[in-house]
Amino acid sequence: MIILDYRDRRPIYEQIVERFQELMMSGGLEQDAQLPSVRSLAMDLSINPNTIQRAYAELERQGYIYSVKGKGSFVADNSVLKDGRKQALLKKQEETALEAWRFDVDREALKDIIDRIYDRGGMSDD
């Protein structure tokens, strides 16, 4: 579920936050799904439970999860966050298309890039 990159310069808790956000935004974790307990995830990842607690606190602060005392942490209704992220992505693509137009990048080349990514189900060439 969560894979850490120890070569990444970012703190571990930030990587955990990002991975959970990706899972929630992509539908890998659905609304009201329970997250692993702090202790069990810390054991699975072989890291300090305080790191998981910090990641969960950040996810809750951002509105991605909610906590129920004595029960654990759960995925929040992220539809508003998801819509906001989609709008931000569309705005970024508009800026990219405008820059491509300014530099006379071929329209079909841009379309081909998008088609290639969608045809592979979001997988990159990397």
Plain-language structure description:
It contains 5 helices and 2 strands, in the order αααββαα. The longest helix has 24 residues, at 79-102. α1 crosses α3. The chain starts with 11 loop residues before the first helix and ends in a 7-residue tail after the last helix. β1 and β2 form a beta hairpin. The protein has 126 residues and is mainly alpha-helical. It has helices at residues 12-26, 38-45, 49-62, 79-102, 107-119; strands at residues 65-68, 72-75. The protein has a two-stranded antiparallel sheet.
Q: Summarize the main sheet.
A: 2 strands, antiparallel
Q: What number is the mean pLDDT?
A: 91
* Shape designation: elongated
Uncertain residue ranges:
none
Strand order of the largest sheet: 1-2
Rg measurement, Å: 18 Å
Task: Kindly report how far apart the N and C termini lie.
Answer: 20 Å
Count every helix, treating DSSP H or I runs of 4 or more residues as helices. Answer: 5
Attribute tags:
single chain, 126 residues, mainly alpha, two-stranded antiparallel sheet, 5 helices, 2 strands
In brief, what are we looking at here?
By secondary structure, this protein is mostly helical.
Give the arrangement of secondary structure elements.
Layout: H1 12-26, H2 38-45, H3 49-62, E1 65-68, E2 72-75, H4 79-102, H5 107-119
Antiparallel strand pairs: 1-2
